[in-house]
Amino acid sequence: MSSGVLCRPGVAIYYEICGSGPPLLIIPAAHGTHLTHEDLALRLSSQYTVIGFDRRGSLRSRFLSPPTEQQQRNLLKDTVDDIVALIQHLSPDQPVLIYSISLGCMHALELLTSYPDLVRQIIVHDPCIPCLLPKPSFEQVSAAFQSTVSLYKSQGPAAASEAFVPVVTSDEDRALLRFSPAHKKLLALSILCFNFLFEHELPILLEYRISYPALKAYRDKITLIRGELSTTPLTTEPITTLGGELGLPVKMVAGGHLPSATHPGAFTQDLLSILGEAM
């Protein structure tokens, strides 16, 4: 494994590379850090050159100074531009496979529509994108997000994390996670990393809107997957909507919304099979 830093305007993007084979980029989920995916990266590294990174503002890719209002307004675009720069730096001669899950799917879809030539195929796993929800579910999730942010401001990241996690994980998923070796690590990362999520990323996520015409032009580069144990509205309804709009099937994989922690072996095999189909 090797690591490095890519200097970008106002921020230094931390990245890691392991393995050999076709390039595969993992876009981090709500935690914003590759630390939640590093075990998966190692399991995939026998067949792929796996690239992981911390999103701007997250743990090892902190802003060099507090983000300005303009940086907040441009956060989604700037994050996608960071990913573009990372791909051009680490895989200048060939497009990359991309695995995205949860909030990271927003960045993957934006990357595809803006820079399709850089993308070989994107795996979209349980996309937690509120605009894809039916109105009742959107209002429910929006209220939950706003309540989470209020808790964060009044009681801190631990209380806010406790309120946020049930929005994206089922009871069974959380029960399995408690017995997972990764449980303590994920709890610690939630407290360390969710500050930026609650302060800056949730508002952008609520405002984000999908461009279906743009996505339809590249539907052949999209694979949709859903965890068998994913049952909450935010982890099931968006991918159903996306599949219907794009005319794409949704493939089921082992685990729920945290499969690398709860079903590491079975999920890795499912993902390897899906990646193999994309080659």
In short:
By secondary structure, the protein is an alpha/beta fold.
The helix/strand series, from N terminus to C terminus, equals: EEEHEHHEHEHHHHHEHEHH
Helix content: 40-55%
Total count of strands: 8
**Average pLDDT rating:** 93
Percent in strands: 15-25%
For the largest sheet, list the strands in their spatial order.
1-2-4-3-5-6-7-8
Uncertain stretches: none
End-to-end Cα distance: 24 Å
Gross morphology is globular
Structural class: alpha/beta
| Distinct helical segment count | 12
Biggest sheet character: 8 strands, mixed
Q: Write down the Rg.
A: 17 Å
Can you describe what's shown?
This protein has 279 residues and is of the alpha/beta class. 51% of the residues lie in helices and 17% in strands. The chain is built from twelve helices and eight strands. Strand 3, helix 1 and strand 4 form a beta-alpha-beta unit. It is globular and about 50 Å long. The two termini are 24 Å apart. The mean pLDDT is 93.
